[in-house]
Structures are given as structure tokens and as C-alpha cells.
Amino acid sequence: MLDFDYSISTKVFFGKNRVGEIGEEIKKYSDRVLFAYGGASIKNSGLYAVIINLLNKNKITYEELSGIQPNPRIKSVREGVNLCRANKLRFILAVGGGSVIDCSKAIAAGIYYNADPWDFFAKKARVEKALPLGTVLTLAATGSEMNGFSVISNEETKEKLAMGNDLLRPKFSVLDPAYTFTVSKKHTAAGVVDIYTHILEQYFCPVQGAYVQDKLAEGLIKVCLKYGHLAVKEPWNYEVRANLMWAGSLALNGILTYGKIGDWAAHVIEHALSAVYDITHGVGLAIIGPNWMEYVLDEKTAGKFAEYAKNVWGIESKDDFDAAKKAIAKTREFFRSLGMPVSLREVGIGDEKIEEMAKKAVVFGDIGNFRKLNTSDVVKILRSAL
Amino acid sequence: MLDFDYSISTKVFFGKNRVGEIGEEIKKYSDRVLFAYGGASIKNSGLYAVIINLLNKNKITYEELSGIQPNPRIKSVREGVNLCRANKLRFILAVGGGSVIDCSKAIAAGIYYNADPWDFFAKKARVEKALPLGTVLTLAATGSEMNGFSVISNEETKEKLAMGNDLLRPKFSVLDPAYTFTVSKKHTAAGVVDIYTHILEQYFCPVQGAYVQDKLAEGLIKVCLKYGHLAVKEPWNYEVRANLMWAGSLALNGILTYGKIGDWAAHVIEHALSAVYDITHGVGLAIIGPNWMEYVLDEKTAGKFAEYAKNVWGIESKDDFDAAKKAIAKTREFFRSLGMPVSLREVGIGDEKIEEMAKKAVVFGDIGNFRKLNTSDVVKILRSAL
């Protein structure tokens, strides 16, 4: 186990109708707020009206930033920074899924930076200060509601890049599983794949002896396996939605990584894929994840895959490679059974831009820690995903 | 799953030689400190000298409160409160195991209360304000380093009572597994039993559908099973000590209880036992825990015990009672194999004071949530533990 600094400062209000409590929480920081959200879904569900009423009742001045898209764009970040500056807003309330929250984090950092906020993602600048933000979560997937990560897309450069800083952890997050009842089958399934892959990215790691973390990771994978199909079949089942929502937050709030190092190559490759083709992140992960696993399976990694096979899938074999291959096949089959595509061709993508995507994936150098990957490795993984 | 408020604010510095960082952390709060510890062990290990050097180097004024005993006494709390008041100390540094930390929490609350701090434990007063405190942990057991609980003994009234408040969560805790290398076999084993029982107290709960929490709990139990014996056999093994130390903190920092309610009857009964006989807490739990399990096994609870049997011990049976009994026997056998006594007679206790202990256990009313227990139930459990 590696040394680590544990600090997870986000307060979580979990349960039904907890949103009513955010007025008091926001006012601890400011009464001038940027209210950030995506599009029609929170208006259709009535959540938009609830938030507006709460803000008014608490005499909180606000400006709205709407239209934040999936794979959120840097232009929304710039727009949010300008809104905050022009209106002296000092708190951001993000209502939505990971895209809205990630965009809000970039705005929170951008307001204190006197150049283009894309610099944070291009690794030209580091976050030194940020506005406080809070979230009301409407999708179980990214874990952004409890961590300091942000992933933003740049349409001009066709890049999708990540940054992370503990200053960007939300001050509070409302996790009301009922808000996810109306999430479509496709996005519910994509969320499950996202959560599952977050766990794998931290489980598969070269650090030895982090048994606590591995047991927690295996436990959270079992939550995905138990409730993944149920969420697609019974979208209005509170227990199902509650367990997936809480698992999604724990999967990426740091608890699985402290004492280890994550791999994250599958995520970086998927970011390159969705930067070029603008597909849903979880869909991209269902395609890339199992192919990444097959590619990095070798003499050094087979033992860890065999652990995964045994402890998650109950597959035992004297031959680690045999166990590993069966477990990878099971993983792909699970994603497929959720209704996810598991190859590029299924989403209409051929081999035309594989080199371009591979170059984007390694823009900052080789990727991955479980096994280091260069451009040529990424090309092979993408080809295997066709 | 029940609604919950998640807030775990303690920062953890985990790893070798992290103690060097506490000077800066303490000075965020005050440069006038109460340095609380037990006895000779931190002097023998050299940790005492390290702390004194750090305090001096950081120009931190301090007073020492030493001699805090296992099953820490209210008289130490009163002494600490007086020291803080007389010397205007505004931060408490607790260096030791759960006893030192629990005592420090009671002092932290007591300084702002104008009557006897025992009132907090006798439920005559509530903590409204507390001094900030930090810890350097030297024993993997109670989890006090990351939560707001405190358990204090009163020699005059022969009571041992608990209180809890989020204001008492340490601001930071240094978790250096190397500090536990020199812990005796007995106290290492008692610590493992304490961690294991904390997990069980939260696992066995009448709330349904908290699957995330159950999977995390089963994972942490497996950490105890994997490393419990190893810690006794290989006290200088860093991986072993590190996993147990981190498991101990996670077992009682709230993550297993959020969304559920704990049972805690076994703990309350053990507190009555050690209030009267002053035995080591983990030893008391090794005796009480399995007897409590046998007693509360009934039609309503058998299903949960069968889950425990299957997921922790790999015991499957068509008959839940059969599985449950086997799993309870396995649990007792595990404690015994660590060198722990599993009956009262083994520690020289007969049936003379069973009624007295039972009355103490239910001083605030019936105990337990998995199954409610009254005085007569507790008498039966204690008799079965003879």
C-alpha cells in the first residue's frame, strides 16, 4: 500500500426530497449564485421549478447558465465565467449529471484565472483558487458530485481532456435517487458501465498489498452486477436507483485509489474517441474497456486478472490466463446484456480516424500504469475494438 | 436504504513518517496545545521524543496530560479540562490508541461546558462546541481516529458510557502503520476483534436494501480474516499492519452505517462488562459477540445471518439457521484462533455480577436494533457467555 492523504470534504445529503435543504447550505458561502444546468430534462421533471422556488424563498440572487451539453464544451465554461464575473456571482449550483458538474468546476476555477480556462485542461495552468460549488445530482455515473475532477471538450481542437484538483470538490451534493427514475434505459446502462469502469481503472494497478482497497472495489462491482439490469428493467425501483447512485459516488471519490495508483488508459482512449465522434462516455467505455483489458493481459498482469475472475465472477482456474480471458469475456457480456454496444462498428465508426484518436490519447505522453501504452498500443486497442 | 447525511471531515496522513507534517496542521488552529498520551509505550518507542521535538521546532507551547489508561477514566478528562483552562490551550494532540483519543474528545467538549463532563455520557448534556483535536494513532482498533465517538469509564459509579458528536471528529489523524509494529500479540488480536465487531454491529441491522454498505462491510471483514493471524505472527510486516490500520478507520468512520442503523448491543454489554471488571475491550467483545449472535438468531434475523455465512465464510445451506449457526461458530473460532478468550470463565469471571452488569447495560432503556434486548435478555446472553 502506498502512502496517501485522505481528504473527502464533500457533504452528501442522500435521500428523498433532500433538495429542500440547499438554501441554507448555499447561504453559508454566498447569496449570489450561478445556477447551471443542461436542458429540458430538469424542466420536464419539475426540478427546475423546485430550485427556482428555493432560490427565491432564500432570497438568493441567481443567473442561469443553461444548455450545458453531454461532453460539455469549453464554450459553456467561458460563458459561465463571463456570467459570474459580470454579475459578481460567488457560488455555483450545478443541477444535472456529470457534464453539468464538470462544466461548473471548470467555471469555478476559471473565474480566478486571467486567461482561457482551457489552459487548465491543456496543462498550461494549474488551479490555485476556485469558487465554492454544490450539486444536485440527476444521473448515477461519473462520481463528479464527490470529487475534484472535470472533463471538458474543445470542439475547435477536437480534444476532450481532464483535470483534477481537491479545490474543486463540491461543498455539498444532494443525492436523491428519485431524480434518476426518468433516466432513459440507454443512459442508465451507460451510467452503470461508467461506474463499473471507474472501479476497474483503480482495481487494475501495479501496487501490491492494497487489499482493503481491492475488497471495497470488488464490493462496488458487485453492486453494479446486482442492480445494473434491474435499473434498466425497473427504472422506478428506489432501492435499485439508490444503490447505484451511492456506488457511483464512492467509486470515484478517492476511497478506491488512496494507497494505490489508478490506470485510466481506457478513459483516456475513450476521451479521444468521444472527442472525435461525440458519443456517450459510458457507451465508449463499454467498447474500449474490455478491449483494453485483453490488450494489457500479459505475464505481469495475469495474476491480478485472475483475482478479479475469482472474487468478482467466481471463476477459478489453475491457469491465470484462462481465468483472465473468461472474466474479460464475462465483463463484455455484462455490458452487452445492458444493451450497450461493444464494438466501434456497432456505433457506425470505422477505421478512418484510428491514428488521429491514438495521437490524441497520448498527447501528454504514454498512458496507463497497470501497463504503459504508447501510440502504437492505442492503435492496436482501437483496431481490436472495431 | 435510509436517508443519510454523509460528512467525514477528518484528513488522514497515511504512511511512514508522516508525523513530521503535524506541526503545520496544528498551527492552523492554535499554537497552544494539550499533548495527551498514555504511558511508557510512546516513550519507549521514541515517538514521545519525536513529538516534543516537533512541537518545539514549530514554536508550539504545550502542556502534557499523561497516564491516560485503557478504559480511560473521567478523572483524566477532568484533569485535561483543568489543564486546558489554566493554560489557555486551544488544540488537543492525542497520541496513542482509542483510549487516549476518546479521552481527548471528552476534554475537547468539556472545556466549553460549565459542569462535570460526565454529564455528556450520562445523557444530561449535549456537546454544543468543542476544541479542535488531531491524533497520531498507535493502535489499530477503535476507529476513534476518524469518528466523533468517545467512550469513558467512571470508577466511582462503575459505569462505562459512550457519546458521539460530529464536532468531535479529529481535524487530522496520522496513520503510520509502523507505530503498531510493537503492539503486543494480545492487544493486536484484541484490536482485530474490535474492528471485526464494529463491522458486524453495522452489518446486522433491520434496514433492507443497503447493499452497497453490506458489500463494503463484507470486504472489510475479509481484511480482518486475511490479516488477523498474520498480524499476530508477523508483527513487523508493514502490509499487514497497514491494511488492518486502514480497515480499522473505515470500519467506524460512518461509511458502513450511512443509510442503515447499527445494532451496538454487543458493545453496550461489553461496556457494562469492562466497567465492572476493567478488562480489555476487544477481549470482552470476543466473549460477548458470538454469544450475542447466537441469542439474536431467530426467524426474522436468520436470513441476514445466512448472507453473512455465504458471503464471508462461503457457507451455503438450504436452511438459514444451519448456515447461521455454522457462521457464528466460525466467527468464535476465528477469535479463539487469534488467542482471544471466548468465555467469561477463561478471564476469571463467574456469575456473581451478571445481574449488575445487565442493569448497567440497559441503563438508558432497551438496547440493540437488529433485535431489541431488555435486562432479562442481557442476563441470558451473559449467562451463555460463562
Write a compact overview of the structure shown.
The structure is a homodimer of 386-residue chains. By secondary structure, chain A is an alpha/beta fold. Chain A is 48% helix and 12% strand.
Model description:
The model of chain A has no long low-confidence stretch (mean pLDDT 97). In chain A, β7 and β8 (159-164) form a beta hairpin. Chain A has two domains: 11-179, Rossmann fold; 185-384, Dehydroquinate synthase-like, alpha domain. The first copy, chain A, has helices at 22-27, 40-45, 47-57, 74-87, 98-110, 118-121, 185-203, 211-233, 238-251, 265-277, 281-296, 302-313, 320-337, 354-361, 375-384, and strands at 4-6, 11-14, 32-37, 61-65, 91-96, 133-137, 149-154, 159-164, 172-175. In chain A, the strands form two sheets. Chain A has a six-stranded parallel sheet with strand order 2-9-6-5-3-4. A two-stranded antiparallel sheet of chain A has the order 7-8. The two termini of chain A are 37 Å apart. Chain A contains 15 helices and nine strands. With 386 residues, chain A is an alpha/beta fold. The A-B interface holds A 1-16, 18, 208-212, 215-216, 218-220, 222-223, 226-227, 239, 242-243, 246-247, 250, 255, 258-259 and B 1-16, 18, 208-212, 215-216, 218-220, 222-223, 226-227, 239, 242-243, 246-247, 250, 255, 258-259. β1 (4-6) of chain A pairs antiparallel with β2 of chain B, so a sheet runs across the interface.
